[in-house]
Amino acid sequence: MARWLLLLAVGLCVAAGAHAWATDEMELFDLVEEVNKNFYELLGVPQDAETKEIKKAFRKLSLVTHPDKNDAPDADVQFRQLVGVYEVLSDAKKRERYHEVLEFGLPDWRSAVFYFRRVRKMGLLEMAVILFMILTVGQYAVLWASYAERKYTIEQNLTAKSKKIQKKAKKGGAPEEDVADFGLEKPSVFHLLPFQSVRFVYLVVTGAPQLYRIATELWEERKRRIQEEEELANQESSEEDEPKEKKPRKRKTFQPPEMTFDAEENSVAESVEEVVAEPKVVRPPPIVGGLWTDDDFAELARLTKKFPGGIPNRWERIAESMNRTVPEVTHMAKRVLEDLAK
């Protein structure tokens, strides 16, 4: 992390040093380097000449160096340089700055602006090549710095454990470890950006068919899932549009509890029936465990109103009228009351 911060700080310093010079000053440096001659000598005036003299000398030379009157092949360049020299000397601030250049000279290689001026004149390809070379050198330095840092860390850890390791080695235990045992690999030129770029291009070219196949399979799988989802949605919508069939209503069935009687009770009941010999109306045997229909429930409701509570033998009369047993009738009446309470 410290390495990257140091590189960033250096880059910011260089950029700040370059931007400390204004654009006008950069253009002045370029003009001085291009003309490569004293501006006053070019105009034929002394260094302390006034603005009027400079203007008069410029008009005189412009009539000679103008491309319309100058047949030289570099007439355009000469006239452009003359105009640039006049603009510098006719402006007080630019003229003062030019005097400083005459006194101290142009920025040399020790100044950041020297390299910045060179970069401003570079083409795109030239700048890309130089930047690529700078990045390669920087990468190589960073790799070695990272290697040295990791090696130093491992050596410090080994030094802390050296006594224990030596004791184990003397007793026939584990051998002493070395830096090479940790798989630390030295940086090589094959780790640099040019070789890695070539390797990346090779892997992309050789793996393109496989990548295309994988992408095709993923696309087909996605299309298949979308089609299945659409079919499922259409099927659900068709099922919702179809009219629902009415299911038959389930009838409630009654299962009477098993009734057990002792032998003595049966004998007593038989004797009583023999003693009391009253004429009875012959009725069909009561229905036990049969299905209860809606009509049966309606009849039960009518009979409960006909025989209200408090009448003696109420449930026996209702059961006799419905030709069913008393337990079955009372059970179903209780169920009806529970359903109404819900």
Automatic annotation (TrEMBL):
Name of the protein described by the UniProt record: J domain-containing protein
Segments crossing the lipid bilayer: 127-147
Compartments, record wording: Endomembrane system; Nucleus
J domain sequence ranges: 38-102
Biased composition (Acidic residues): 229-242
Keyword flag Membrane: yes
PROSITE patterns named in the record: DNAJ_1, DNAJ_2
GO CC, any one term: nucleus
Keyword Transmembrane helix: yes
One Pfam family here: Myb_DNA-binding_2
Membrane-topology annotation of the record: Single-pass membrane protein
Keywords: Membrane, Signal, Transmembrane, Transmembrane helix
InterPro entries: DnaJ_domain, DnaJ_domain_CS, DnaJ_domain_protein, Homeodomain-like_sf, J_dom_sf, SANT/Myb
UniProt source species: Cloeon dipterum
Domain of life: Eukaryota
Signal peptide extent: 1-20
Region (Disordered): 229-267
